[in-house]
Amino acid sequence: MKIDGVAYRSIWVEPSDGWSVRILDQTKLPWQVEWLRLTDEDQVTHAIRAMQTRGAPLIGATAAYGVALAMRRDPTTLEESCRRLAGTRPTAINLRWAIERMLAALRNLPPAHRAAAAYAEAAAIADDDAATCEAIGRNGLPLLQEIADRKPNIPVNVLTHCNAGWLATVDWGTALAPIYMAHDAGLPIHVWVDETRPRNQGAALTAFELGAHGVPHTVVADNAGGHLMQHGEVDIVIVGTDRVTRQGDVANKIGTYLKALAARDNGVPFWVALPHSTLDMRVADGITEIPIEERSQAEVTDLTGRTADGRIETIRVVAGGSPAANPAFDVTPARLVTGLVTERGRIAATAEAIAGLYPEKV
Ligand SMILES: CSC[C@@H](O)[C@H](O)C(=O)COP(=O)(O)O
After folding, report:
1. Which residues are annotated as site, described as Transition state stabilizer (predicted)?
2. Which residues have a Cβ under 8 Å from the Cβ of 150 and sit 6 or more positions away?
3. What is the complex's ipTM, to 2 decimals?
């Protein structure tokens, strides 16, 4: 990914000291590009909870570096640090996946060797995510190419929800990776960006990313998708995900399910892009078995933006004493999903296809 022409990853180790960890403060985007420097596990847990860093794969990589920072300070706290980091957010399974990988790599090492091994394992997780997302891009590209072939010189209209781009991963993104590759290959692409209330990941983050990459896009209110589909303005929906069950149910940002329903009603293909770290083979039924994060009411009652004179301000938009509810994710049943784009290829969202592609996970 590039910001102002400079290539970055979404997380990296500060080269000048070789141990502190840099992340973009996503609560400041798109108004300020501010790289935070994380120096201990507490800062990492805060960054994940407060969503300074977010997106399922990136949360996993950040937690892995949190373990490394904890091991640098006190290598005898491995189990406790992993428990704390794993408890920061409940829905994205990548967090548990990364912590379990860290535990497996470190548990049997003498404490004196744990810090170095933890940094190496966290770096391997980050490298794996970047390479995996790039492969997702390659495997998703033919979906867009096929549509472009059917309507030469007319933009392929993709609708996406939330942010599943490089800000949600170490690099490339999941749902946005095929879009970047299609754009770079010269396909005419236009993206409908759902604003994604309450936290506006679409309006703030996806629009920022696509703009930085020069991809034509339009931000729409979350409620616009069904209308656009009814009028033939959407060729394909591609979203990311925070957890996919062994039967293919998909947890993703709240509002995704409604897009899947509208897509089905209008014959629009609904694809879900995911890395292997997002598969949770321990659960089958997403609706009853995936814990859905409930976040603060303030995310619904308040809006943050930049004033004309450049100040970042938060204002209340909900009437006086009205309470709010804020479920952060929903589950789209596998029957509404056209298919899954993974680093190993594209498959149907069925138990058989998932088990066939990932036999080592069964
Ligand atoms: C590639 S992460 C999956 C996304 O589609 C997802 O909804 C997401 O961005 C994660 O939610 P967030 O609550 O912003 O961490």
Report:
1. 162
2. none
3. 0.96
